[in-house]
Every structure is written in C-alpha cells, then in structure tokens.
Amino acid sequence: VEEFFLRPAALLPDRRFLIGGNGWGDKAVPANVRHLGHVGTRDHNAFNASSLAVLNIARDSMAAVGFSPATRVFEAAGAGACLITDAWVGLD
C-alpha cells in the first residue's frame, strides 16, 4: 500500500485518490487521499467504476494459501476497471 498507492499519491498532489477498507488508520496519508473506510458489497461496482484504476493487493495470508485472488479482483474487472493487482499464475 505504501509503495503502490500512498507514495504515488504523494507524488501526484494535483490528483485525487480514494482508498477503501480498513487497516490504514496508522498510515501517513497525503492530503489528496480520501479514506472511505469499509465499502459495502452493494457499493463495490460503483467504487470500482469510479476510478481511473483500481489497485488490489492480496494479503500475505491469502496469497500464501490461496490458488486464486480474492473476489475483489473479479468484481473490479467486471465493473470495467483498469485493474492493477498481484501476479497470479493463470489469471491472464
């Protein structure tokens, strides 16, 4: 999150960024980042379709035991988002 979201946001102060979910409260967030907190399931499509690109980073625990990415990746793709995500064998 720091390298692929917060740092680019800090380098692009004239652009606006949204971050959803929890766990970012202890991070230094640039002024151009709006934290939405939890994004409910019914709002996922609107959230994904509202952005120029969607960054999805799998939790280490999920990546270590999973054979596919979380459903969030497929939701973002289904909403027509430009998706940036971890590498997953066979996802392409």
| Terminus-to-terminus distance | 23 Å
Number of DSSP strand runs: 4
Question: For the report, how would you describe the main beta sheet?
Answer: 2 strands, parallel
- Helix content range: 25-40%
Count of separate DSSP helical elements: 4
Structural class given helices, strands, pairing? alpha/beta
Strand-residue proportion: 15-25%
Instruction: Please give the order of strands in the largest beta sheet.
Output: 1-2
- Which sequence of SSEs, written as H and E, runs from N to C? HEEHEHHE
Question: Uncertain segments of ≥5 residues (pLDDT<50)?
Answer: none
User: What spatial form do the alpha-carbon principal axes imply?
Assistant: globular
The chain-level mean pLDDT equals: 86
Radius of gyration: 13 Å
How does the SSE layout of this entry go?
Blueprint: H1 2-11, E1 17-20, E2 33-37, H2 44-49, E3 54-56, H3 60-65, H4 71-78, E4 83-85
Characteristics of this structure?
92 residues; alpha/beta; two-stranded parallel sheet; two-stranded parallel ribbon; 33% helix; globular
Protein model, in words:
This protein is α/β, with parallel strands linked by helices and 92 residues long. It contains four helices and four strands; from the N terminus they run H-E-E-H-E-H-H-E. The chain has helices at residues 2-11, 44-49, 60-65, 71-78, and strands spanning 17-20, 33-37, 54-56, 83-85. The strands form two sheets. The chain has a two-stranded parallel ribbon with strand order 1-2. It has a two-stranded parallel sheet with strand order 3-4. The protein is globular and about 35 Å long. The chain starts with a helix and ends in a 7-residue tail after the last strand.
